[in-house]
Amino acid sequence: MTAFFEGIQYLFVNILFAPLDFLRRLELVTWFGANTINWIFMIICASAIVYWIKQLRLFDAAGTENQDTTAHSFLK
């Protein structure tokens, strides 16, 4: 049973956390390089929000949005 838990430890510490160890070492060299992945995620989220708002405006302008308060049965 000990070998099983040591295998789990090896998987997480040596394999799955290797990218995080790389980022930790990279932060000592360049802060911007270590935080590049954060900037990429922020750009993806910002573009998704802009796309979502554009789609909301399109549906609102077309009048296809049902804004009646009785649209759902639990609101009656």
Structure summarized in a few sentences:
GO terms for molecular function: glycosyltransferase activity. This protein has four helices and no strands.
Notes on the structure:
By secondary structure, this protein is mainly alpha-helical. About 75% of the residues lie in helices and about 0% in strands. It has helices at about 1-15, 20-30, 30-35, 35-60. The protein starts with a helix and ends in a 14-residue tail after the last helix. The mean pLDDT is about 90. It comes from Flavobacterium azizsancarii. This is Uracil phosphoribosyltransferase. It holds the Pfam family DUF6341.
Key traits:
76 residues, mainly alpha
What is the helix tally? 4
Please state roughly what percent of the residues sit in beta strands, choosing from under 5%, 5-15%, 15-25%, 25-35%, 35-45% or over 45%: under 5%
Major sheet summary line: none
- Unreliable residue stretches: none
Q: What's the helical proportion of residues? A: over 70%
Number of strands: 0
Cα distance spanning the termini:
58 Å
Order of SSEs, N→C? HHHH
Radius of gyration, taken over Cα atoms and rounded to an integer in Å: 24 Å
Please tell me the overall pLDDT.
88
SSE topology sketch:
Layout: H1 2-16, H2 18-29, H3 31-34, H4 36-62
